[in-house]
Amino acid sequence: MGRSDVLIVGAGPTGLVLALWLARQRVKVRIIDKTDGPGTTSRALAVQARTLELYRQLDLTEEILAKGHKVPGINLWVEGQKKARVPFETIAEDLTPYGPFIYPQDQHERLLIEHLEALGVSVERSTELLGFSEAGDHIVATLRRPDGQEEPCEANYLAGCDGARSIVRQTAGIGFPGGTYQQVFYVADVDASGPALDGELHVDLDEADFLAVFPLKGEGRARLIGTVRDERAAQAETLKFEDVSDRAIQHMKVRVQTVNWFSTYRVHHRVTEHFRKGRVFLLGDAAHIHSPAGGQGMNTGIGDAINLAWKLKAVLAGQASDALLDTYETERRAFALKLVATTDKGFTLATAEGWAADFIRTRIVPIVVPTLFKFEAVRGYLFSAVSQIVINYRDSAISVGRAGDVKGGDRLPWAPTPGVDNFDTLRTIGWQVHVYGTPSAELDDWCKRQGLALHAFAWQEAHAKTGLLRDAMYLLRPDTYVALAAEQQDPEVLSRYFMDQGLAQGQT
């Protein structure tokens, strides 16, 4: 019976990213999926800026940017007329290298699979997890192979990336509290023409039905997402595109030539009670599901995977104690709870019924939203939230200190200067130290002795504008979040941090 370091159940984006990050760190992984092939429908569309930042560690970002579609702006429609436009061209300026971006999930999965196979790991298809139990220092699982035969297998850890109906979560006996929205949604990928097929995002604010046209790469390609109301909602399983397309055709003048995919679904909002139970971890939709408002779902699962991957590697390599794995739940569950609450408010506003809600959407929103977006602070706040660059782990047990406006647990600010991009050092997976100013000889010597990368950036006023402090010391985790921020360059502070956290110094 073979044994892997980590058995991953589910080969959607979350499972594939976890496998990629682990394989890149030379962790022995096995990834299974009960389906016979990757997804063939676009499903999730948005790839948020924080995901693109982190994808640089796997050389994925440039390829995705070349294959996907940058969204130039969003247009708001009322009574069949385009009433307002919010430009996105400069929305990410000074915050991140990446703006709003679309790359359909089916293409996304295929790209992840290609990169995973290049590392010598293949998804085991038509392979189902039947059950598992914890046996001391490992997990014993039972799999059903494609030929119907059952196979026992062992792994040090089990990662449930198997979706909202997760067999891993159910077998572990972890609750999944929450509820289901009453609205029925439809989604259709189409080839079409009309003013709303111009490569931008278009949203119809009329009445209480939500309707949006999302651009896909290629002329005349788009995704329509809308709500289904009245008596049709009761027959959601049997609806066809023709049953729900009137509004898109009449209100937004969409002329559909071909429907490539159509489906209906209900939206849930749930967060699992625990992200970790012993040697079992839950990630992605197995741990949290919520409304699609803001395109957060897939990106949140990917964030789960990256957060967990470096911690599993450290523990498996004997570079950290088991306590490090507890921070996965404390960091990611806190974010999931906040995200579900936020998307719930946005979803409720977009779909609320009644004259007051209609008045706000059709009369107030088209005036107020473009006006607010003229203010840099508002643009930055909203984009930071949606793009997930605002995520921080300040309350984590492994987040320590403050220097300038940057605290332990923060995402490192993007602070490019002419000819120098401080994010260029973040293409590797490992611990590193940043100094914006002049590093001391003592710090340089300590880092060399510990095998810890030290990156120094000549001080510029641009650094101060992002909240960084001159000559301060920033220790970055392998997922590029700030672990320790200290005003003084004292190697003893670094040494004490690693010791207090049970981490080996100078990890790679």
Automatic annotation (TrEMBL):
Its cofactor is FAD. Residues 4-341 form the FAD-binding domain. Keywords: FAD, Flavoprotein. The keyword Flavoprotein applies. The keyword Zinc-finger does not apply. InterPro entries: FAD-bd, FAD/NAD-bd_sf, RIFMO-like. It holds the Pfam family FAD_binding_3. This is FAD-dependent oxidoreductase. It comes from Mesorhizobium shangrilense. The lineage of its organism: Bacteria, Pseudomonadati, Pseudomonadota, Alphaproteobacteria, Hyphomicrobiales.
